[in-house]
């Protein structure tokens, strides 16, 4: 009986590992790639994938690659909504202390997705739709997330996603991005200096010890968000990301 229970737990663990491997590969992968990454025999991978496909959590493409399935969309939407609600007190605190819009975002494939926002009380403010997606290389939250990865991992992601320009200030080469990320790692936060939206400056910091790469940003018009603002914002951001991490990992 114990052996059966152990086998069942191992199978469940392998299923989740497969889903994460498909996500890490950019959303689809061959069965051979999955077997090599998981260190499991092809028949085992095939059996697990067949179960995932039958339940709608994976799908086989016409080119015989395996992709994440549609049932994961609903789970992800609910999880993101709950996570956003959990972090809302900290985001509101950020707005109260700094007066500018606060955002919470996570990595989703080769993009960032915004899962929560507390708006600034100012009439002129930054607005990002919750659930909206954006490029990693041109947003402060995206760069804060990329800074947690190795240069090789960044190259792999950008190789798939490209570096589309949002503004004339958007970074245009992988070398520029890697240099920017090196600075972000050294100082502990990332900056979007009008790279995603004209006239908007954002500061972001990664949330530590999270199961998925996550970052918090504070954003506003350049006329209000300058060097003096940065000196005030960074210590507050550091407190907020620590509080969000503690609140999330308490459950």
What features would you describe in this structure?
By secondary structure, this protein is an alpha+beta fold. It folds into two domains: 2-69, Orthogonal Bundle (Arc Repressor Mutant, subunit A); 74-249, GAF domain (Beta-Lactamase), CATH 3.30.450.40. It is built from eight helices and nine strands. The chain has helices spanning 2-24, 31-38, 42-55, 71-98, 140-146, 151-161, 174-187, 227-249, and strands at 28-29, 58-60, 66-68, 101-108, 111-118, 133-135, 190-193, 200-206, 214-221. The strands form two sheets. The chain has a six-stranded antiparallel β-sheet with strand order 6-5-4-9-8-7, with helices on both faces. The protein has a three-stranded antiparallel β-sheet with strand order 1-3-2. Strand 8 and strand 9 form a beta hairpin. The longest helix has 28 residues, at 71-98. It is globular, with a radius of gyration of 20 Å. The relative contact order is 0.11.
What keywords describe this structure?
single chain; about 250 residues; alpha+beta; Arc Repressor Mutant, subunit A; Beta-Lactamase; 2 domains; six-stranded antiparallel sheet; three-stranded antiparallel sheet; 8 helices; 9 strands; about 20% strand; disordered N terminus; WH_DNA-bd_sf; glycerol metabolism; DNA-binding transcription factor activity
Topology diagram in text:
Elements: H1 2-24, E1 28-29, H2 31-38, H3 42-55, E2 58-60, E3 66-68, H4 71-98, E4 101-108, E5 111-118, E6 133-135, H5 140-146, H6 151-161, H7 174-187, E7 190-193, E8 200-206, E9 214-221, H8 227-249
Antiparallel strand pairs: 1-3, 2-3, 4-5, 4-9, 5-6, 7-8, 8-9
Helix pairs in contact: 1-3, 2-3, 4-8
């Amino acid at each position: 009986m114990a052996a059966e229970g152990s086998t069942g737990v191992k199978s469940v663990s392998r299923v989740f590992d497969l889903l994460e491997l498909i996500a890490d590969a950019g959303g689809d992968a061959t069965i051979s790639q999955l077997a090599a990454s998981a260190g499991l025999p092809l028949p085992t991978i095939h059996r697990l994938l067949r179960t995932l496909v039958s339940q709608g959590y994976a799908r086989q493409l016409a080119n015989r690659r395996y992709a994440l399935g549609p049932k994961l969309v609903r789970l992800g939407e609910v999880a993101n909504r709950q996570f956003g609600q959990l972090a809302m007190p900290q985001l509101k605190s950020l707005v109260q202390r700094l007066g500018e819009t606060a955002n919470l975002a996570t990595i989703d494939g080769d993009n960032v997705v915004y899962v929560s926002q507390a708006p600034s009380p100012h009439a002129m403010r930054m607005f990002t739709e919750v659930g909206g997606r954006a490029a990693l290389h041109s947003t402060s939250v995206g760069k804060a997330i990329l800074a947690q990865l190795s240069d090789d991992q960044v190259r792999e992601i950008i190789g798939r996603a490209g570096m589309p320009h949002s503004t004339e200030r958007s970074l245009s080469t992988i070398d520029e991005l890697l240099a920017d990320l090196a600075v972000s790692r050294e100082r502990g936060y990332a900056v979007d200096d009008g790279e995603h939206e004209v006239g908007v400056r954002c500061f972001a910091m990664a949330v530590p010890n999270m199961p998925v790469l996550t970052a918090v940003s504070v954003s506003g018009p350049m006329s209000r968000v300058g060097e003096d603002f940065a000196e005030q914002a960074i210590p507050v951001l550091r407190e907020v990301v620590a509080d969000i991490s503690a609140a999330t990992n308490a459950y």
